[in-house]
Structure formats: structure tokens, C-alpha cells
Design goal:
The protein is of the alpha/beta class. The protein contains nine helices and eleven strands. Belongs to the BtpA family.
């Protein structure tokens, strides 16, 4: 049986991808003009090192505090993210990916420029969302991926977008099946309503059962208390809020919380 791409690219099955959330960037409403980009870079470096030292398998950099999000991201955001990654990646010794919220083409541009192994995005569907009507065009995005030579970048499709609902589609099994058939994702990500909201185990199981040959990640709300249960179903998890101090989205990463979580994961893998 051939290896899963997660084993080949990220080094393990049942992989844990940790989110490294950048604070607000130039052009964002919350950007700290006084601290400037230097403060953003140094915060990102500290967060990244805590995650790496805590034992995660991979890191995904995202502009999580560019609230409210855009679906067509500005050039200054991508430029700022590229600078941050360029300055800190010399201290990074595990694979990484990127997520430019919520713009798949810009995510691929950033991945190609920085050497990221994967991107996570909303590639398919039409939604009613907190950001208005949210439309996508997967065919254009994949053609852009090939045009810039980013064919080796793995595409993680978020099929249950946070803060959004499919327009006239609610059968998650059929969504998973049609997405895999039409778009050939490298992985499907299944989310709760918002960052930190638990992924429903039954929804996760429904998706995995429908597309058993496709990598499926629990995308939000995975905690030390439920990670073993989630990994019995999923091929891995994307984890952000859980690794923050007191499990609060706005807080900085807590290295001890990361280590305690990864100890549970390692125990699960060794069973």
C-alpha cells in the first residue's frame, strides 16, 4: 500500500498542523502602527518557535487577525506575509504551509514565493457568509497554480467554511463526494462554525466514509480532551486556538499547552 502524501510531505500519518497566526498587518484595521512590521515579525517568530518546540508536525502561517477578512486580498497583505516568513523561516525546521484568508490565488502566490508545502483555502462552493455572498472558481485557481509552477503545493479544501453556509446545499456527504470527483483535492478540511469551535465528530465520520481514499482533517476545535477521538476518524488535524494561553483565540501560544497536546497525540500514535 502506497504511503499517504502526509507521510511523504509532512513526515507522519495522523499529522498535527499548528496555526501560526500573524497579528494585524499593514492595511488591516487593527495594525499597530507604533510597533510596525518589526513587532509583527518578532511576535510571529516567538509563536512559531513555541509551536516547533512543543513538537507539532507542521506549521501553517495565516493572517488570522486581518479582520474583517477579504475574499480578494490586497497586495500589501501578501507582501507583508512574505516578509514575515522570509525573516523567520531560517529558524523553522519542520514543513510549513500558508493560508491567505480568504484568497486561494494569493495563497498559492505566497506558497510559491516562500517554499510552502501546502495551502488551505475555500476553493469550491457559493456561500451566504459574514463577508457577503462568497463565490469561488476552482478551475481558475488550479490553472493559476499550474501557471506559476506550484503543482507540488498540496491543496487543502475547507468544505465547511467558518462563518458561512452553502447556498441551497446542505448534504455534507454529497458535497464531499462531488468536490473530490470534480476538483481532486489533496485533502478536505471539516470545520466548526468559527475558529475554536469543535468539529462535529459525526460530520467528520460522514465525510471520511464518503471519500475514504481522500485525506480528511478536523479543522477547528480539536483539544487535548478530544484529539484521540478525532484522530480515530480523521487523518490529522489543524490546530490553532487550543495552543493559545487558556485556549483563548486572541492570546499568545502557550508552549506547555502545545507539549501536553502533542504528548496525547504521540500516545495515540503508539497504540
Amino acid at each position: 500500500m502506497s504511503k499517504k502524501w502526509t507521510e511523504e510531505v509532512l513526515g507522519t500519518d495522523k499529522v498535527i498542523i499548528a496555526m501560526c497566526h500573524f497579528t494585524a498587518l499593514p492595511g488591516d484595521p487593527g495594525f499597530d502602527e507604533k510597533g510596525g512590521m518589526e513587532a509583527v515579525v518578532e511576535r510571529a517568530r516567538r509563536e512559531m518557535l513555541k509551536l516547533q518546540e512543543g513538537g507539532v508536525d507542521a506549521i501553517m502561517f495565516s493572517n488570522e487577525f486581518s479582520l474583517p477578512y477579504l475574499t480578494k486580498v490586497k497586495t500589501e497583505t501578501v507582501a507583508a506575509m512574505a516578509r514575515i516568513i522570509g525573516e523567520i523561516k531560517g529558524d523553522l525546521h519542520i514543513p510549513f504551509g500558508v493560508n491567505v484568508l480568504w484568497d486561494p490565488e494569493k495563497s498559492l502566490d505566497l506558497a510559491k514565493a516562500t517554499g510552502a508545502k501546502f495551502v488551505r483555502e475555500i476553493f469550491t462552493g457559493v456561500y451566504a457568509s459574514d463577508f457577503g455572498i462568497w463565490d469561488t472558481n476552482c478551475g481558475e485557481v488550479v490553472r493559476h497554480q499550474h501557471a506559476i509552477g506550484a503543482q507540488d503545493v498540496k491543496l487543502l479544501f475547507n468544505i465547511v467554511p467558518e462563518a458561512a453556509k452553502y447556498i441551497q446545499r446542505d448534504d455534507i456527504a454529497q458535497i464531499a463526494k462531488s468536490t473530490v470527483f470534480n476538483c481532486r483535492p489533496d485533502a478536505l478540511c471539516v470545520s466548526g462554525l468559527t475558529a475554536g469551535a469543535a468539529t462535529d465528530s459525526q460530520v467528520l465520520k460522514t465525510v471520511k466514509n464518503e471519500v475514504p481514499q481522500t485525506i480528511v482533517f478536523a479543522n477547528t476545535g480539536v483539544r487535548k480532551e478530544n484529539v484521540a477521538e478525532q484522530l480515530k476518524i480523521a487523518d490529522g488535524a489543524v490546530v490553532g486556538t487550543t495552543f493559545k494561553k487558556d485556549g483563548i483565540f486572541e492570546n499568545a501560544v502557550d508552549r506547555e499547552r502545545v507539549k501536553e497536546f502533542m504528548d496525547v497525540v504521540k500516545e495515540f500514535r503508539n497504540k
